[in-house]
Amino acid sequence: MEKQIHRIGVLTSGGDAPGMNAAVRAVVRTAMDLGIGCVGIRRGWNGLIASDFVQLDATSVSHIIDKGGTVLYTARSEEFMTEEGRAKALSTCKLLGLEGIVAIGGDGTFRGALALSRQAAASGYDLQVVGIPATIDNDIGCSHYTIGFDTACNTAVQCIDKLRDTMQSHERCSVVEVMGRRAGHLALYVGISVGATAVLIPERDVDFDRDIVEKIRQARLAGTTHYMVVVAEGAGSAADIGKRIHDALGLDPRVTVLGHIQRGGSPTARDRETASRMGYMAVAALASSRGNCIIATQDGRIVDLDMEEALQMKKSFPMDRYQILEALTLSGSHRS
Ligand code: F6P
User: Fold this and answer.
1) 135 and 174 part of one domain
2) Does 164 share its domain with 50?
3) 115 and 28: one domain?
4) Is residue 331 part of a domain?
5) First to last CA, the chain
6) Rounded CA separation 104/133 (Å)
């Protein structure tokens, strides 16, 4: 039988991502619609430990759907990784009368949520958690899409289009580092979108001669006089790659690290719409006693997956897109 839920908490944790605010808004507005009270926990899991919260109602989330960052602030909490830290967090949950928590973030956020729910259960406290995937890296195993990816890709594409204008004018080589410590989704998507000469990703071993020197050489032979190399931060440092290009080919590359600019900005329609649907589904899951789940996208549909099982899932990297990139660029090996 469904248990009536009276109050839930919502928080954002880990690296911020454009669209997190749209998700917070959807969680709060859905809760209000279902007659459930909602408390905003500030600064991620640290907020639960430190009892740092704010009461939310339908109007407190007005005019945030278009805002980048997160109005609830975010953090990566070391203390929450410990049993003692989670015990402090549980005290706050009990004091506030929370029966559910919606945690918006990445894998680490969800693992923390599950650990909290289990620790609560061990003491006879039923605290259900729901995860909403939000990271510009798009690297969450159970979800085809994560909130923030589209905005970050568009930001990087806009920056690289500008770089291309000046590289083309000076007939130069540009080496651009995009975010992605462990994942190359952003680099590959952006690389295809800007028609990059070469893209380096952490999922593929880098062979400098094959992946960079030959690509630039083939592009030159095909008539190009400017080159765009996109590097995921997890695949190497742009500064180092620029120097090696100089040494190997005698070019004078310009290096740009896009960095945190990719995490900011007003979310795109795709991120707002996905965040809105996921926030709605998260509260609907709690309200119908289907907690301890992750709201994910699978083939365009939004589904709720058992959290423990979802955390075991691995996302296969779309290597076929790497082949598409190579087929479409003037540096493609078919032109040798
Ligand atoms: O949010 C994920 C991510 O953007 C990674 O791509 C990047 O390596 C990392 O966060 C940077 O984190 P920080 O904000 O701690 O520098």
Assistant:
1) no
2) no
3) yes
4) no
5) 67
6) 6
Tokens found for residue 7: 């109050």
Choice from 70, 104, 137 to test ligand 1 binding pocket (greatest atom count within 8 A of CB): 137
d(CA 198, CA 185): 14
Q: Are residues 25 and 174 in the same domain?
A: no
Could you tell me if residue 97 is left (phi over 0), alpha (psi between -120 and 50 degrees) or otherwise beta? left
Three-state DSSP at 198 gives strand
Q: Is the CB of 179 under 6 A from ligand 1?
A: yes
Residue 202's domain comprises 152-263
Token reading at 323? 């082949």
Q: What is the pLDDT along the chain (336 residues), one digit of tens a residue?
A: 567 999 999 999 999 999 999 999 999 999 999 999 999 999 999 999 999 999 999 999 999 999 999 999 999 999 999 999 999 999 999 999 999 999 999 999 999 999 999 999 999 999 999 999 999 999 999 999 999 999 999 999 999 999 999 999 999 999 999 999 999 999 999 999 999 999 999 999 999 999 999 999 999 999 999 999 999 999 999 999 999 999 999 999 999 999 999 999 999 999 999 999 999 999 999 999 999 999 999 998 999 999 999 999 999 999 999 999 989 987 655 544
**Does the annotation mark 137 as catalytic?**
yes
Catalytic-role residue among 33, 66, 107, 137: 137
Last residue of a domain, one of 263, 278, 299: 263
Whole-angstrom CA distances from 302 to 133, 167, 275 are 11, 41, 11
For tokens 């296969």, what's the residue? 316
